[in-house]
Amino acid sequence: MRQDDCQPVLLAAGGRLLQSASGGLVAMPAELEALHSEVIEAQYPLGPDAADGRLLVLHADTEPALRQPAMALRDALAQARNESEYGWLSRAAQLATWHEQHRFCGRCGAALIHHAQDLAKTCEPCGLSQYPRISPCIIVLVVRGDQCLLARAPHYAAGRFSTLAGFIEAGETAEAAVAREIQEEVSIEVQNVRYFKSQSWPFPHALMLGFFADYKAGELMPDGVEILEAHWFSRDNLPDLPPSFSISRQLIESYRRGELG
Ligand SMILES: [Zn+2]
């Protein structure tokens, strides 16, 4: 997907990443040469160093004729060869969404312009600045003895089970969100909540904070809305699981290896 000796350049328009003629998301040299500067609405760095590459946002009404059918972001992330590559793909997708959805000031309605120093947009009339939106979520693997809790949400592929997850509410700690989400979704109590790791999750701008937790009390009772089924699974009898690049799968694999933090 990426040539090791060149900076990746990704293209976006209308809030979405554009597929390259290569079949991936990194633009080919010929595609970049064909771009006139006036079709580029904005550009953003894909990391702290210039070598990390750039995202070029094109005016929505001047998308290049060489645009290929849209590539599903999940497919692109699944092709990432390491965490670094995953990171700049995730960042590009989130910046494309943010650029598209934050064009005007939420306080006075004036058009936003790029901030002089920060990766942000700012409003000249009233001074309000808007940074790329990030929505913190918890994602948790609950363990009971030698079993773990996995659940099915309505939008999952048939047969797939995953960890429980949810957005952190305003004013709430991540640990409190773990206890609340599990209580709301499957009606049990947990204890000994402990941090695992985090992952940027660009659907569309989540930051997943991963945790393990131990079962404390209660009977599994899915809410029937966000969770349709929930069961305790042993290490040697796991169902169809989320893709390997997801933090959900990393939580489960850590449990499978007996590494519970
Ligand atoms: Zn304003």
TrEMBL record:
Q: One GO MF term, please?
A: metal ion binding
Keyword field: Hydrolase, Magnesium, Metal-binding, NAD
Q: InterPro entries, per this entry? A: NudC-like_C (IPR049734), NUDIX_hydrolase-like_dom_sf (IPR015797), NUDIX_hydrolase_dom (IPR000086), Znr_NADH_PPase (IPR015376)
Q: Does the keyword Heme apply?
A: no
Q: Which PANTHER family match?
A: NAD(P)H PYROPHOSPHATASE NUDT13, MITOCHONDRIAL (PTHR11383:SF3), NUCLEOSIDE DIPHOSPHATE-LINKED MOIETY X MOTIF 13 (PTHR11383)
* Top enzyme category: hydrolase
**Residue ranges of every copy of the Nudix hydrolase domain listed in the record:** 132-255
Name its co-factor(s).
Answer: Mg(2+)
Q: What is this protein called?
A: NAD(+) diphosphatase
User: Which species is this UniProt entry from?
Assistant: Marinobacterium aestuarii
Tell me its EC number(s), please: 3.6.1.22
